[in-house]
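Fig. S4 source data, part A: sequence.
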Amino acid sequence: MTQLDAAYTKWRKVIAAGNDNFELRHTLITLVYYFRAIDLAVLLVKQWPLSQRAIHALLVSYHNLAELYEREKCMRQAWQVLVTAKQQMMAAFCKQGERAGLNLACQQARKRLSQFENAHGRFAPFSPPQKELNTYTGNGLTALHSQQPVRR
């Protein structure tokens, strides 16, 4: 068994465990498995960028996570994951050039994002939390400065 085979087998076990928990509706456990699957798939792509299995693992991992978010009605998170999947596939395409497996992965990522957007719309990308600019609350206290919750 090659190193690629071993790493891919490890990814398959993690994604399968995530899928089992998805079916059992164990949302938090599924989330952990899917994030782990993405981490493993990213490593696969870094180590074997020309491997169709590595690209497939990354795409499946992202799409499974998006499906979990969608099921849980977290549409903005699902959309962001699908955007990330498409961006990752396009980045691999730009880096590695035109290949049959990569072309198909790009098409699948684009199609899945398009289907989601047709059903649920687009969302603003996540950005770092912004500090509250206006801290006036009407009673003269500000939560920002007092480190206490404002009570009305």
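Fig. S4 source data, part B ends here. The mean pLDDT is 84.
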